[in-house]
Every structure is written in C-alpha cells, then in structure tokens.
Specification:
Shape of chain A: flat
CATH class of chain A: Mainly Alpha
Strand order of the largest sheet of chain B: 6-7-8-3-9-10
Largest sheet of chain A: none
Structural class of chain A: mainly alpha
Shape of chain B: globular
Structural class of chain B: alpha/beta
CATH architecture of chain A: Orthogonal Bundle
Largest sheet of chain B: 6 strands, mixed
Strand content of chain A: under 5%
Number of domains of chain A: 1
Distance between the termini of chain B: 38 Å
Number of strands of chain B: 10
Distance between the termini of chain A: 55 Å
Order of helices and strands of chain A: HHHHHHHH
Bound molecules: adenosine-5'-triphosphate, magnesium ion
Number of helices of chain B: 10
Strand content of chain B: 15-25%
Oligomer: heterodimer
Chain lengths: 226, 259
C-alpha cells in the first residue's frame, strides 16, 4: 500500500475508533448510576421488586449481548411497526448505547451488591454505638470501603466493555471493526487486505493499556488501608 | 443507681435467649458477666446498646427510663442516638474503621456530633481543637501516643483494641461495656488491654465487662454475674461467686476453667 492509501486507511480507522470510544463512555456514564438503582431494587424489602430484578438479572446476564442488541434494534419495528431508534448511524448508536447500558448496569449492580456484602456488619454497629446516623455511616465509613472492594471487579468489566463494543458491528454500527472490515473486500481504490483489520487490534491494545494504568493507579490510591 | 435493668427478655425466632434479666449498678462499679458460650452475654450487651430491641423489660440510666417494652415510644433517630450515648461498647474484634488513622477513629464521631451544636456554629476552631486535644489525651492514656497516625492494619490486635477503647471513651459514656475485649488477641497481647481496663477501674469508670478471663474478673470487679441459659444464675461479690459459689451450675462452670 502506498502512503496515501495508508492515510486513507487510518482516517477510516480513526473515525471508527471515535465511535467505539463514544459507545464506551456513554455506556459507562449510563450504567454506573443505573447499576446503583438496580442494586437498590434488588435489595428492596418490597419482595415483588426484588424478584423482578432477580429475574431480569438472570435474563440479561444469561443471554448473549449480541441477541439483546438485535432484539432491541429490530424488535420494535418488526413486532409492533414501532421505530423508536430513527434511521441511520444516529439510530444505530442510540439502540447500541441503550442495549449496552442496560446489559452493563445489571453486571455492575451485582458487583455493587458484592461490595456492600463484603463490609462486615460490625462497621455499621460500631458507627451506631458511636451515635452516628445511618447516612453518616454510609458516607463516612462504608462508601470508601465499598469503592475499594469493587474496584478490581469493575476494572475487569471496564476492560471487557472496550472489546464488547465491537458486538455493535452486528447492527452495522460504524465502529472500528466495521471500519477495518471494509478493506477485506477492497475499498476506496485499495485492493483487498487484512492489514487494516489487524491495525484495529493496536487501537484496542493501546487504549486498554492506558485504562489499565489508570485503574491500577486508582487501586494504589486506595491501598493505604485494608 | 446509675443503671437499673429489669425483666429483660429477648427471643430470636422461637429461641428465647434472654429470659428475664434484672440487675443494678452504682456509679464507679465494675460489673463482670461470666457464663458459658451461648448463655446470652453478648445479646444482653447489645440490648443495652440499642443494637437489639428487647421483647420485654425496662432499662433506666440515672433514673431516666431509656427503654420500656411496656410503654413503647417511637423515638426519633435523634432521641435514640442521645439515649445510645449513655453507653459505650467495645467489641471483641475492635471494629475500627480501616480507612481512618487511630487518631481519626477517635475523633470521627465527636466531630460529626459537634456539627449539630450551637457552639460549633459560633466557634468551630475551638470545638475542633477541644475534640482533638481530648483524643490526644485518651490515646496517651492508652499508651498509643506514637501510634496516632497509624492505620488499623498497621497496629497489633492489642493496640487496635486500645484505640477502640479510646474511641468509646471519647464520647464520655456513663457506662462502658466490653464484650470479651481480649478474646480475639494472642495471649501475650491480652495483658496490655487488661492493664488499661484496670486503670479505668481505678479511675472509677463504670464498666460492664463480659469476659472469660476469670482471674481478671475476680480481681477487677466489684460485682460478678454468672449467666446461664438466658438467666442470671448467681450474682454477688467476686469473693462470693468465685470463692463460695452456691449454685451447682456455677461450680461446674468455674470447674471447667480450672482444668
Ligand atoms: N441475631 C441473632 N439471630 C438468631 N440467633 C441469635 C442472634 N444473635 C444471637 N443468637 C443466638 O443467641 C444465643 C446467645 O448468643 P450470645 O452471643 O448472646 O451468647 P454469648 O453468651 O455471648 O456467647 P459467647 O460466649 O459464645 O460469646 C446463641 O445461641 C446465638 O446463636
Ligand atoms: Mg458473646
């Protein structure tokens, strides 16, 4: 390939990776708080709500994200002639982001639940006998311990999410795999080549490397206590 | 009397763990509670500290009824907290807050409590200064001046327990309760904790101590209660209970410690 052709390839990959990043960040921003709500629903003393959440958790975590994407994107139109997502790339992005946020929120909720369960009851009791309110105990005593406990499993999920974004290829979202795959059959006057697709791996590796450094640093920040 | 406890009953499900507990204490007294595992000692301390709600009975401190199952009140959270603060509780496994230093563990609750007061709004620096000074004093009394800035995981079990005692004392409880304060410690560390409890007894701190350290209980207490199966089986001076037990169950229990 000539330098000009490479520049075409990288332009295409950059555009695709930007879409990958958008999906990644939008999913995190949506799923982190939604996971908290789901966790609260799961722990609710109103039994039906807790059961409903458990059932949904089973369905969402037990079935492939790819199917969830397909159902969410094509389902409403085919089943009810209802087209909530609109057309084009924007519509595909809305559908993909919705599916990812819901899917990851259910995973995050389970991680949060584990984080809360990992804090011994004695912490709450110690706070109570010292005259602290439950709110003070949550924010001043339990929250930081919870964050510390969930950071390693959350890091895992975040790294997985970076790679999972490529599943949105199934509804033709123009993320980086889609961008690289175009060149398999030859495109923009470039003959068929596997190299652009291989280059996408480098994008993933660099971004995940940076994330790992960031997350490790965060874990170190909290390593001053046990 | 500083503390009057009468008719305390508590069940978990079908099991009745406390089956009518009555006792009283005068200011400056040290009460030891002994008894075999499962006899309800921890449950009794938890009832006094409002961590459990008794099914029946009455608890009064300095003549003020704090709890009466016969005339239940729906206390606001604030009132409940004020009642709680008559008592302090030192746990078997310390329950220090791991993300705070020894010093911060001692000051945290007082700083939070102070925020609601007029004095704090008028002169914040003076109030905080007073709380910190008191924390320095207490940690010094516990022999931990050089450990103030250590986190709990950097301290030995004995040091942790002494921080926990300082933390409880910082709130100036009328009655300080200990639930087997040395049971989680290596034998060579129990001495340093028993020593500070003994010093508190010398300073006439009113204390209730649940313990399996019989020699210590005999030595430090003004009064001893032997609990068996949810009731007070025998009580009296250390000399009466340890030296001349009247009940067969007491004799059996004490015998098991000699062997
Ligand atoms: N929250 C609870 N729910 C159900 N049962 C409980 C609860 N707390 C305590 N029990 C039961 O009550 C009984 C008495 O427990 P408690 O902890 O008061 O005994 P203890 O005298 O402190 O014993 P130990 O010397 O082993 O500490 C035990 O059989 C225990 O299983
Ligand atoms: Mg106990």
């Amino acid at each position: 390939m000539t330098p000009e052709q490479w520049s075409i390839v990288f332009n295409a990959l950059n555009v695709g990776f930007l879409q990958t990043l958008r999906l990644f960040f939008v999913t995190l921003i949506g799923a982190i708080p939604l996971g908290l709500l789901i966790m609260l629903a799961r722990r609710s003393s109103f039994r039906p709500l807790s059961w409903l959440t458990q059932g949904l958790t089973w369905i969402i975590r037990g079935s492939p994200l790819m199917i969830q994407l397909l159902i969410l994107y094509y389902g409403p139109g085919l089943a009810f002639d209802w087209h909530p997502w609109g057309g084009g790339e924007a519509g595909r992005f809305s559908a993909a982001a919705t599916a990812f946020i819901i899917n990851y929120a259910f995973y995050f909720a389970e991680i949060y639940r584990g984080g809360i369960a990992s804090i011994p009851a004695g912490q709450e009791e110690a706070g109570l006998v010292l005259g602290m309110t439950r709110t003070q105990i949550f924010f001043k005593v339990k929250l930081l311990q919870m964050v510390k406990a969930i950071l390693p499993p959350m890091s895992n999920e975040v790294i997985t999410l970076v790679k999972d974004t490529s599943l949105s290829r199934i509804i033709a979202l123009q993320e980086i795999i889609w961008a690289g795959q175009k060149f398999l059959k030859g495109s923009s006057g470039i003959s068929a080549s596997i190299l652009p697709l291989l280059c996408t791996v480098v994008y993933y590796l660099i971004f995940n490397g940076l994330l790992t450094i960031l997350l490790t640093r965060l874990e170190k920040q909290l390593s001053y206590f046990r | 009397m500083i503390l009057e406890v009468s008719g305390i009953r508590k069940s978990f499900g079908k099991a009745e763990i406390l089956r009518g507990i009555d006792f009283g204490m005068d200011r400056g007294e040290v009460l030891s509670i002994i008894g075999s595992s499962g006899s309800g000692k921890t449950t009794l301390l938890r009832c006094l500290n409002f961590l459990e709600t008794p099914d029946a009975g009455r608890i009064a401190v300095n003549g003020e009824t704090l709890f009466d199952a016969a005339s239940p009140t729906r206390d606001s959270a604030k009132v409940l907290r004020r009642k709680r603060l008559h008592f302090g509780l030192v746990f078997q496994n310390f329950n220090l807050f791991p993300q705070y230093t020894a010093f911060e563990n001692v000051t945290l609750a007082n700083l939070l409590l102070a925020k609601d007061t007029d004095a704090y709004r008028q002169n914040k620096a003076a109030v905080i200064g007073g709380i910190e000074e008191e924390a320095h004093r207490l940690l010094k009394q516990m022999g931990l001046s050089d450990r103030e800035n250590n986190y709990p995981h950097q301290l030995s079990g004995g040091q942790c327990q002494r921080v926990a005692i300082a933390r409880a004392l910082a709130l100036k409880p009328d009655i300080l309760c200990f639930d087997e304060p040395t049971s989680a410690l290596d034998p060579e560390l129990t001495g340093e904790v028993l020593k500070v409890i003994r010093e508190l007894a010398d300073q006439r701190m009113t204390m209730i101590i649940v313990t399996h350290e019989m020699a210590f209980a005999r030595d430090v207490s003004s009064h001893v209660i032997f609990m068996d199966n949810g009731i007070i089986c025998e009580q009296g001076t250390p000399d009466q209970v340890f030296g001349h037990p009247q009940e067969e169950r007491t004799r059996q229990f004490l015998q098991s410690f000699i062997q």
